Amino acid sequence: MNNDLYSILGVGETASQAELKKAYRKLAKKYHPDANPGDKKAEERFKEISDAYDILGTTEKREKYDQIRKGGGDFSWSDADGQAGNSFGDGGLADILRSMFGGGGFGTGGGFGQRRTSRHTVVVSVPFTTAAIGGTVRANLEMPSMCPVCMGAGGSGEKICSQCGGSGRVQQGQMVMPCPGCSGEGKTYTDICLKCHGTGSVNSSETVDMNIPAGSDDGSVLRLATPSRKTVMVKLRVTPDKFFRRDGRDIHCTVKVTAPQAVLGTKLKIRTLDGKIVLKIKPGTQPGTVLRISGKGVPYRGAKGDQLVHVEVSLPISLSEEEKVNWEKLASLKT
């Protein structure tokens, strides 16, 4: 992989911003994943080009890059992450740029010509049991991708934003805020792209079958490569279960028994994560008793947690005359 951002875009270090943009758009169009379906090398080249332009296409980042670049002969990014000899060929260009400039790759947020991240985060709902024991979930992923018409520019006929004068910021009282006219870009366009309405991206969707690892928690984030070779980060939202609740590797549930069942004992058919079993309630079981079923919890590193069954005793709220007599008889036996 090339160590020099200017070489990646095929321009010289004295190239103007307009020349940089022209070179970027030409290369991005050539190597865009939509134009090269299934071509892993084209995808990597596209990311490399996009990451390079993310730096050189922003004045402040370009100046910082130029300062570091001119600091040494054979350019290396060892100063960027504190590891000697770490160049673009090691952790990858995007990782190096991310460590230097706090993001790397496509930027986030709105605005004209704003380049979108290739690792968009989507939220996927996962059933409680699937998250606990693992399984497959089919999900429709809605993701932004670079606009194929303007190649992420957002429009044509670039001009300085009239609201901020090109600074990208405006004064509001005692605070300095991103300019609402250009979303902090400092520039707008005479002709806004009709395809993306100036955002530089369009929504696309893909249906994928996701493998959910056993023991996944609510909020867990998975890195997923889609069939179109896009890389997305998937945040799991575990759907609550009406019967189960989770505490680490253990599963808790509550069952209700009647007073006679608690006194005399009974057998109940209850749910576990992998099917129903018969649970024996011993005679004389007290309210609040917790019964432990070993190995019926969440799998973790070759072992499983337990299922803890909380027993509640249901007492009658109102009694018929016959029931009242029977309870009085029971009460008299205790005296």
Would you kindly provide a written description of the structure presented here, covering whatever features stand out?
The chain is α+β, with helices and mostly antiparallel strands and 335 residues long. It folds into 3 domains: 105 residues, Helix Hairpins, CATH 1.10.287; 96 residues, Sandwich (HSP40/DNAj peptide-binding domain), CATH 2.60.260; 90 residues, Urease metallochaperone UreE, N-terminal domain (HSP40/DNAj peptide-binding domain, Sandwich). The chain contains 9 helices and 17 strands. Helix 2 runs antiparallel to helix 3 and helix 3 packs parallel to helix 6. It is elongated.
CATH architecture of the largest domain: Orthogonal Bundle
* Outline type: elongated
Which strand order spans the largest sheet, edge to edge or round the barrel? Answer: 10-11-17-14
How many beta-strand segments? 17
> Helix-strand pattern, N to C?
HHHHHHEHEEEEEEEEEEHEEEEEEH
Total count of domains: 3
Average predicted local confidence, pLDDT: 78
CATH topology of the largest domain: Helix Hairpins
Give unreliable regions as ranges: 72-118
Q: Could you name the CATH homologous superfamily of the largest domain?
A: DnaJ domain
Query: In whole angstroms, how far apart are the ends?
Result: 90 Å
Radius of gyration: 31 Å
Please outline the helices and strands.
Blueprint: H1 5-9, H2 17-31, H3 40-56, H4 59-69, H5 78-81, H6 93-101, E1 121-127, H7 128-133, E2 135-146, E3 155-160, E4 169-172, E5 175-178, E6 187-192, E7 201-212, E8 221-225, E9 231-239, E10 245-247, E11 250-258, H8 259-264, E12 266-272, E13 275-281, E14 290-293, E15 299-300, E16 303-304, E17 307-314, H9 321-334
Parallel strand pairs: 1-9, 11-17
Antiparallel strand pairs: 2-7, 3-6, 4-5, 8-9, 10-11, 12-13, 14-17, 15-16
